[in-house]
Every structure is written in C-alpha cells, then in structure tokens.
Amino acid sequence: MGDIGEDGDTDNRVCHACIGDSQLNSEIRRYGRPAPCAYCGNTRLRTVSIPQLARRIDPVYRMMVGFGEQEPDFDPDSDNVHWIIRGDTPSQLIGDMIECADTTIAEDIVEQLGSDHSYSIGMGEDQDWYDESSDVFVVETPDDPEFRMAWESFCHSVKHERRFFGDGAIALLDKILGPILEGRQRLFRGVVRSIGPEDEERFIYRGRLANDEAARKRIYAAPIAELSAPPAAYATAGRMNSAGISVFYGSADVETAVAELRVPVGGIAVVGRFEITRPLRLLDLTKLEVINNDLSFFHPDYFTMHSYASFLRGFHQEIRKPIIPGRETLEYLPTQVVAEYLWTRGERSVDGLIFGSSQVSGDRTNIVLFPQASGVENADAEVRREVAGIYHFGGSDDEPPDVAETVYLHPAPAPQAPAKEDLTGLGDAWFEPVEAIPQPVAQHSLRLDISSLTKAAVQAIRYSVTEVPVELQDEREMPF
C-alpha cells in the first residue's frame, strides 16, 4: 500500500484484524492509521479506507480473475443437458483472497470497484469483473514451468548422460533447494526443522523381513545390529543411497514400516522402535504439501513463489513415488544425487529427510537419516547371543493369531582378549605391538528400545486402484 496515499475517508474504514491475508494485514499495520473500524468496532487498531483497500486489490484481482469452465447440467425430468458455467461471485472470490472476517467487507469492496470502473464498462471498454449478479468467476493461477523443466532435464541427464555429481547438478539443486535450506523466506520456514530427544516425533520404526523362525532367531540374537542400518560394505542401493553408502530408513509407525518392506499376506516382519538421541536437522518434504496455503495473492513475487511452491509439491511426489521392481537402478539415480547434495552442503546440510509413504495412503511418513546421522548406540559393540527357545501364546487352529512371543537367550559369551600380533623375526627388543588406529565413525543419533520389538504378521493388504475402461474394436474403426 505504500504507493497509495490516504484519501481522507473516515466513515468506512477497516482494521488489520479484519483482514486475514498476511501481506495486506502487514501493509495495513504499516501504512494505516488508528481510527474506528466500521466492521468490528475496534477504535485502537490501524485502519485504511475501503476505497484505499479496493485500489490495492483491484490490479491483483483483475490479473487473477477469469471465467469458470462450462459443465453439463442434466435435467432429471426431461433428460435434457444444459451447459452452465460454474464459479463464484466477485465478493466471494475477493473475500477468499483477502480472508476477511466479515463478508460485508468484500461486498463493499466490490461495490466500490464496480463504481470506479462503471464508465469504462458502460462504454464497452472493459469487462465487468465486478458483476455481483454473476457467479461465473474463478481465480486462475498461471503456471510457470521453469522449475519443472529444469528438474526433468536434470533427471534425464543423470539417468542417460552423466552419472556423477558435477557442477551443473550442484547449480541446479542450489536453485531448486537453496531457498528451502537457507530459510530466508517466511513461507519456507519450518520445512527444515530440528527433531531431538524431547520431541514427540523422536521415535522411528524400522523392521526386517522374517518369514521363517530362522530369520527371526537371527534378529533376536542381535537385535540392535540386525535392525540398524547395514555396514557400508553390505549397503545395497536404495531410494536415497547408492551401493556402499549406508543410510537409515525408517517410518513413523509400525504399519508403515511393514508396508515399506512389502511383506506379503501371511508374511512376517520384526520391527523395533528407535529413539532419536540428539537434535537432528531434517528436511520435512511433507510440509511442502500445504505451502501454498500461506502464500498471499498480494505478495510482490506471488507468481514466482506460487510456481516454485507448486513445483515443490510435485518434487515431494517425485521423491516418494513408488518404483516398479526391476527399474530401481535407473529410477533411483536422481533421488540418490539429491540425497548426496543434501548431506554435503556444509552449514546448510541436513541430517535426513521426512517424506510421505507411497505404500500406505493418508499422511503416513517415512524418514531417512544420512550417513552422518545413521549410527545406533551399541550396534558395533553388541554381542550376538544364541537363541535357546521361542514360545508362542495363542495362534492354534482354534485360537486367534499369536498374542505374545517370548524369546529365551543363552548368556552372552565372555569377551575374548584380542590376540597380539606375532612380531617374531622383527626384533622384539626394538618393536612393541601397536594397536590399529581406529577408523572414524558417524556420531550416534539413535537408540533401539529392546522392549519395543514386535513381530508383525500381515493379515491383509488394501489396494487403491484406478479403473480405466478398455474397449476392443475392429482395426477399421481406428481414427488414424
């Protein structure tokens, strides 16, 4: 509002508390003056006149407004089809845009703008976008494909041209993810967040397929090591890691953890609950799904930010999308590069990602912790114990599935003293045995709660399908 001067109107004014849109609210606070609000009655807040507010809204509204699409409307009595345009009235659209507390505010703005443009409308020089008798108007948001095209080009390059982390990939990912990692825009704050030992979301569930008793015994014998991320030498390629790089994949609940393992009906997984033990900086991609809800139509960079926010929602879908078995090697390449970028950005790097599950509908989430944050307490020091026996409660033909399982373990074997290296022949008087220099390890970030172990037996799987009719016709009916 800075370029719109005060017009002296003192009778019909609106305060910032009656306008929910963040941009307009901020501008009224900054450029308005204390005066009685005609809508809520407050006499102490900053206000602007309706003509002043209307002039601020007018160019933005006219840039965004359009006509709704025609849709068929069936008459059940005559079976006739009428084509109608579905939309809203100008006051409904403006009310939604400015998030006004009283619908009268939007109606007064429309009346003011209709009066302002009455001459040009009457002369046929302008479309009447403020006709309150018509409910045919919609907000049309243009889509700038710049970010989407850049991402598609990046994916094609990584898959089919060059598969190393070059300067071009870094520059593109800086453009795509830099604004989020830096958090300079208020809109993106909260997408990168910290989760630590005091937070409710500190628990992560991770499981392993264990369809037979031998597999379960192997897990029960050393649950920390078996349920932790694998050693780098055994790490296979995944959505967020290439082969030889160990990361920790987990989920926010047991059901999602089992679904991500793709356990078949009748199959079993052993799941444990891990607890985050130190603050971790995480990029929460699920926050991108609602990022446009906080974006003001009146922000000076609205179109650029809207296009970017729309791309980010699609980016989350790209990260989480299911991959058809057999195509993982190729399809995982772009997300593997993104993950490596995220954990190598120095001060801007993150410890992991939170993203939506593609295996379970709703708002179920997964988490991946990158190498520097994937360590689990006592995973390396755990002593494997032999299973003496497993006892089940329930589960016979006449009873429901197991309600409990008790595992008995033999005592842990006594630790063996490390054997000293035999240096005979090198001169015992000159040399003493030297211990190997320990290799650096990732800082421990997780702790497994041994009492949380669960044997999850899959009883049923629910599918969500899209049905596409298929019609078989003679070749002569082909349209081309």
Automatic annotation (TrEMBL):
Pfam family for this entry, one: HEPN_RES_NTD1
Superkingdom in the source lineage: Bacteria
Location of the RES domain: 223-380
InterPro entries from the UniProt entry: HEPN/RES_NTD1, RES_dom
Official protein name in the record: RES domain-containing protein
